[in-house]
Amino acid sequence: MDVGALNALGYEDFMNIFGNIVEKCPLVAAAVWSKRPFANVSALEAAFYEFIDALPDSGKEGILRCHPDLAGRDLQCGTLTPESREEQARAGLDALSADEASLIAQLNQDYKRRFEFPFIICAKMNDKATILRQLLERVDNDRAEESARGIEEVKKICHLRLQALKLHKL
């Protein structure tokens, strides 16, 4: 897809392609669509980040709450989005031992109890050992720090999802 084709996409087509760049948050893609035309893929990516950064803290935490627990119920039930399923599988979260699954479930529960949103990490850039270590370490952060860290991880996920669409020609 060239930049002209990207900018010519109607709303529905844009949403079909970019609607899950931010996990289960099509509102972000809808807002980005209204920012056309884009000079290139970097401008498209920047539009996603600018929208997220402009949100109040409650909106940012809303984005965090849209994410599934890592190795959680959605993975076990097969109800993850295709993007999340691939990302978690790549990190090895679909092949946990019973002990690992129990530990990560407990850590996810502790984290959500403390912060009221799920633990977010770019699974595609980490393996299960790193994810477990980060869960153990980050649960001790304060809420503002962890919310900011979660948003930075969302941006990493966004970047990789845009790359996966092979838009680099733009």
Give a written overview of the molecule.
The protein has 170 residues and is mainly alpha-helical. It has two domains: 3-62, no CATH class; 68-163, Oxo-4-hydroxy-4-carboxy-5-ureidoimidazoline decarboxylase (UraD-like). 65% of the residues lie in helices and 0% in strands. The protein is globular. The model has no long low-confidence stretch (mean pLDDT 95).
Describe, in short, the structure shown.
The protein is mainly alpha-helical and 170 residues long. Helices cover 65% and strands 0% of the residues.
| CATH homologous superfamily grouping of the largest domain | Oxo-4-hydroxy-4-carboxy-5-ureidoimidazoline decarboxylase
CATH topology of the largest domain: UraD-like
Distance between the termini: 7 Å
Classified by CATH, the class of the largest domain is Mainly Alpha
CATH architecture assignment of the largest domain? Orthogonal Bundle
H-E string: HHHHHHHHHH
Helix content: 55-70%
What is the strand and helix layout of this fold?
Elements: H1 3-8, H2 11-18, H3 26-33, H4 41-54, H5 57-65, H6 73-77, H7 82-90, H8 98-115, H9 128-138, H10 143-164
Helix pairs in contact: 2-3, 3-4, 4-10, 5-10, 8-9
Main attributes of the structure:
single chain; 170 residues; mainly alpha; UraD-like
